[in-house]
Recover the amino acids of this structure.
């Protein structure tokens, strides 16, 4: 039992580390994209991430970035399928500005992720 608990703890801290680097990445994208109202974040089951700044029309305001935490390159699966939708575990927009109303947020979400979005 002791071992099991230890392993679980390790997994949590790994997720926390990924979360932290994800936040740093988002901050970097925002800094480089003054027109951005938010950053679209797509989490993949393999722990790779796809991100792009989004402007108020829901158009990309930066290049699409795909990266893997503390790795030099993305995983082999992503190299092959470019982070296919079937492997997406989560997708959301990290909003930069808080003065966007709910209707506009929804419009941008649909535009960015399409109507397949679970949100
Ligand atoms: Zn991957």
């Amino acid at each position: 039992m002791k071992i099991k608990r230890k392993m679980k703890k390790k997994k949590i801290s790994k997720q926390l580390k990924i979360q932290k680097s994800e936040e740093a990445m988002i901050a970097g994208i925002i800094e480089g994209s003054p027109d951005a109202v938010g950053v679209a974040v797509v989490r993949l089951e393999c722990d790779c991430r796809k991100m792009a700044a989004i402007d108020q029309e829901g158009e990309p305001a930066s290049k699409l970035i795909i990266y893997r935490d503390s790795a030099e390159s993305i995983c082999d699966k992503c190299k092959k399928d470019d982070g296919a939708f079937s492997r997406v575990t989560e997708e959301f927009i990290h909003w930069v500005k808080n003065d966007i109303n709910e209707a506009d947020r929804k419009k941008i979400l649909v535009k960015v992720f399409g109507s397949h979005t679970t949100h």
Residues 2-113 form one domain. Residues 44, 46, 48, 74-75, 77-78 surround zinc ion (CB under 6 Å). The chain has a mean pLDDT of 88.
